[in-house]
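Homework-ish question, so no full write-ups if that breaks the rules, but can someone show me the predicted structure for this set?
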Amino acid sequence: MDEKRLVDVTDLKVHFFTDDGVVKAVDGVSFHIDKGETLAVVGESGSGKSVASLAMMRLIPNPPGKIVGGQVLFRGKDGKTRDLVKEDEATMRKIRGNDIAMIFQEPMTSLNPVYTVGDQIAEAIVLHQGKSKKEALDQAAEMLDLVGIPEPKKRLSNYPHQMSGGMRQRVMIAMALSCNPSLLIADEPTTALDVTIQAQILELMNKLREEIGMSILFITHNLGVVAEMADRVVVMYAGRAVEEADVVPTFKKPLHPYTMGLLNSVPRLDLAATHQQRLEAIPGNVPNPLNLPQGCAFHPRCKFFKPGLCDQDIPVLQDAGNGHMVRCVRWAEIQKGEVVGA
Amino acid sequence: MSAVVPETTTANLVEVTHLKKWFPIRGGILSRVVANVKAVNDVSFGVKKGEVLGLVGESGSGKTTVGRTILRLIEPTEGTISFQGQDITHIPKNQLRSYRRKMQIIFQDPFASLNPRMTVGDIIAEPLVIHNLEGSAQARNDRVAELLQLVGLNPDHVRRYPHEFSGGQRQRIGIARALAVRPEFIVADEPVSALDVSIQAQVVNLLQDLKEQLGLTILFIAHDLAVVEYISDRIAVMYLGKVMELAPSRDLYLKPRHPYTEALLSAIPTPDPTIKRERIVLQGDIPSPINPPSGCVFRTRCRYAIAECANTVPELKEVSPGHFKACIRDDIPGLS
Ligand SMILES: Nc1ncnc2c1ncn2[C@@H]1O[C@H](COP(=O)(O)OP(=O)(O)O)[C@@H](O)[C@H]1O
Ligand SMILES: Nc1ncnc2c1ncn2[C@@H]1O[C@H](COP(=O)(O)OP(=O)(O)O)[C@@H](O)[C@H]1O
Ligand code: SF4
Ligand SMILES: [Mg+2]
Ligand SMILES: [Mg+2]
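A: Not a homework solution, just the prediction itself:
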C-alpha cells in the first residue's frame, strides 16, 4: 500500500441473506483514505453507507449478513498492513479499540444508561491503555475538556440522560478519541442534532482532526456537511459507488447524473437572491434492494438514460482523469454536451 | 402587553393573538402542578389567505404546539385563535366540526400517521365518511381516484396498503387524505423532514403546485430553513416559545434583523466547498422551556446581549415594511 495510505478498500461486497431474497447492500465498493484525510461517503438512505463502514470494522451481523468479497487493507499503528476482512476476532477487537473508533447518529444507543459518562470513558481507557482507574478518570476529564464540555470534572459523574443530545455526542467523541485512533468513522454524527448544535460538533471535529492528525470517514446524507468537512467524496447509490472525486470537483463538475441530480435537488439558501422558486427533483423512488434495475441501477430515474445501453451491463467505475472516478456509460458524451437530458 | 398582530388585516384567514400553551408538570403524591413547560409563550401572527407562512426554529421551540393549537387539537392556555375572522378559541368541541373540515394537518412521519391495516383507498376516503361528504360509494371512489391523481399517484393503487409504498409515496397519500375534504387551511408539520433530498424536492414541488391549483393557505412547519425558504411567502422564526422575527421569505434570508436568525442562518452548511464564510457558532444548548431566561429568551446565547436584555421582554415590532423583530437593540451593525 502507498506510503500515505491508511485504508484501501477494494471491491467490497456485503450481502444479507433474508427470507425475501439476497440484499446486495454493498456490491463492489472501492475507495481509499489517506493519512489525515477526511473522506465523505454520501448517498440517500439505504445506499449502503452504514453497512460499508460496519464491514470495515467487521461488525456485520451474521446471519443474515456476510462479507462475500473484497478486501479492506488497513495500516495499523504498529506499522503493519492487514486485510481486515481476513483477520481473526481477537485482532479485530484490538484494532477496534486502538486504531479505529466509531461514532453514530444516536449516542444513546452506544452509551450505557446505567453508568456515569466518567466510568464509561475510563473503562475504555483502562481496557485499551492498561492504566489504573484513577489515571483513567483523570484522562477522561481531560478528554471531556478537549471536546469542549464545561466543568469536565463535575460532568464525569453525570449519567447520559442528564445531558443534551449535543453533549452526549461530545461524550461519544471523547470516548472514541480516548484511544487515539488513526481512523475515526463518523456515521451521520450530526443528523439528529439541531443546526446550531451541528455547527458546534462540526467545528469541534475539524479542530480535533487538525490537532490529532487522524483520518475521518464521514458518512452523511447532507451535502452541506460534505462540502464543509470533506477532502474527498464517494457518492453511493444502491450499494455501489457511482462517483469519487476531490470535494471541489464533486460539487463544481459532477460527472454522474445521480450526483448532478442530488446537487440540484438540494434547497440552496446561499442562492436565495437568484434561484428559481422551484426545486429540481429526481423523479421516481430509490429502487427496491431485492430487485435492483438491470444495468445501471439509476437508469429508471436518469434523464440521460438510453435504452439498450444503460439497462444492459452494470457500468464499470472509470477514471475520468485526475482520479475522478465515475460509474456511468455516458459520462463522456454528457460532459461534451452531446446528449441533452430528457 | 400590547397586541401586536403582524400584518393584521381582514385578509388573514387564520390569526393567533397572544397565544400561550403551557403544559403543566405534576409532582408529589397530590399530583400538584410543580412547574410548567412554556411551550408557546405569547405568540401572535396572521396567515393571509392563499399564502404559505413558514414556521421555523430548532426542536422544542414550540412549532408543533402552535400548529396543533390552531387546529384545536391542543387547547390553548391563553390567547385567541380566529379563523375567517371568527374567534374559535372557545367553540365547544362538538361544534368544531365545520372548522375541522376546513383545517387539515399533514404529519412528518407518513408511516406512523397512516393505519397499516387500511387500504390506501379507505385511508383517503375516511375523512369523507367522517364528514359525510360525497354521499354515494361511487362518488367517494371517484373522489379518491381524483385525489390520487392530484398528488401524483396511480389511481390503480387504491387497494394497496401503506407498507407497499416508499416514504415519498406515503407522504403523497397523507397529502391526498388531508385534501379529501377540500380544506382551506393546512398545517404541514415537518412534511418533508423524514424524506431523502431527491424525494423531499418532489414533495415540496407538489405542495407548491397544490397551493396554486387549489388556492390553499398553508402553515408550513420545518426546522430546515432552506426548505422553508423555497415554499414560503413569509417566515416566522421561533425560539423557546416565542417568535423572534417575521418577514417576507427572501428578506429574512437576505437581510436578517434578529441575532438569532443571523446565527441560525450562519449555522447552515452551504453545499459549496468554495464558499468559506465566517460562522457564528452559538455556544451551549437551548435553555429549558420550564424556566426560560428572563427578558429576551435568547439572551443567554446572544453575542449582542446587554444588561437590559435580562429585564425587558422584547416586543415583536415592525422594523421595515412587513419585517418584524423581537429584539430591544436596534443599533447592531449589520442587523439594523
Ligand atoms: N441486518 C440487515 N438485514 C437485512 N438487510 C439489511 C440489514 N442491514 C442493512 N440492510 C440493508 O442494506 C441496505 C443498506 O443499508 P445501510 O448501509 O444501512 O444504508 P445507509 O446507511 O446508506 O442508509 C439497505 O437496503 C438495508 O435495508
Ligand atoms: N404534551 C406535552 N407535555 C409536556 N411538554 C410538551 C408536550 N408537548 C410538547 N411539549 C414540550 O413543549 C416544547 C415545544 O414542543 P414542540 O411544540 O413539539 O416543539 P417543536 O415542534 O418546535 O420541536 C418542548 O419543550 C416539548 O418538550
Ligand atoms: S449509465 Fe445511463 S442511466 Fe446510468 S447514470 Fe449514466 S446515463 Fe444515466
Ligand atoms: Mg446509515
Ligand atoms: Mg415539531
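Now go work out the reasoning yourself. Hint: The first strand of chain A starts at residue 5 and ends at 18.
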